[in-house]
Amino acid sequence: MKSLTKTAIACAVTLATFNTFAETQITVATVNNGHMIEMQKLTPEFEKQYPDIKVKWVTLEEGVLRQNVTQDIANGSGLYDVMTIGMYEAPIWGERGWLEPIDTSGSYDVKDILPSIRGGLSYDGTMFASPFYGESSMVMYRKDLAEKAGVTISDRDSWEHIRDAAAAMNDPDNGVYGICLRGKAGWGDNMAFLSAMANSFGARWFDMDWKPQLTSDEWKNAVSFYVDLLDNYGPPGASGNSFNENLALFNEGKCGMWIDATIAASFVTDPKQSKVADQVGFAQSPYAVTEKGANWLWSWALGIPAATKNADAAQKFVRWATSKEYIQLVGTKNGWSAVPTGTRQSTYDNPKFREAAVFAEAELKAINSANPNDSTLEPSPYVGVQFAAIPEFQAIGTTTGQMVSGALAGSLSVDKALESANRSADRQMRQAGYY
Q: Which pTM value belongs to this model?
């Protein structure tokens, strides 16, 4: 009897030990954007498919996410098994060996991913992050307000025309502002928008000798125009607004125009979220002196740090969340206008998506028109539209964003802001040995 009891206890211990080790928990760090929140809601579908894997989420505001994942991967801490990164980080970190190559074998159908998006997340032909959604930028505007003001919004309008249209639609007494733009400091916040705008004014971050060009006439013209535009026709407190804040303003009917990420189109046309869903029109981004670099190219993607101890489980999650099947799942559950877009050609080929998403054609046109290898009027030594794909850019872009946000808030002049940013950039580039 004692022998049987000991055997039973040993079996129970063995089973408990097996169960303990059979379940793998992965930690996923992501940004607090709508599509990412939806992915979290659908996590039980993944866990049902892979019952031995549990997903823990860490959801952060964009600027905090960038800081946390950069620190984690640079230190090799392994806090996260999957991290949400973008086109800036993926090739740089991939080259340094900080990321696991994405498993694109078998049914994943990597060739279905749009070439510009796939290329932007790769280094030397290897994809180091898989796109959850992709985006460019475009104009979203209120058709009813434009008609009432007697203005038209077309593809590739001039910035002067956009300013005049903003003036015509501006009605602050009734809580409507002519234009909403990013003002919150950050290389991925206000500078994502402003870099593309500055490109169209003929600006560039660096010359061919890697000397910062932030005090050039082109940068001064672009930033001065931007500050005046928001001062005169933007909402109060614009220097604190980024994507989510402007999305909320637009959906409440408070913006005549909003120029931002194409991914917003699915939110502003959703009657469950937007009070003006049936009045939204779309147009390609405006320009000043050149169309080069006038709209950005980006992807929020899922990468796997080399320091993870759960690489196999992380690969399964990334493949699931960025698959054609996941897009089908969202389309079936939430409607085809709600799927994450900008990643796969099959999405745009799907008749259900094209019927549901009035923005599909404009979005794909914007993404396909962006060229990170040729985004400035004058030659530049870097790859990237709204960023320069070098490790030093994150600090340079962040400091520049802080200075520009200060100019927008009125705490310093545009000239002083750009002079300060240029000095900081020059110091960074010298210390890094560029010249």
A: 0.88
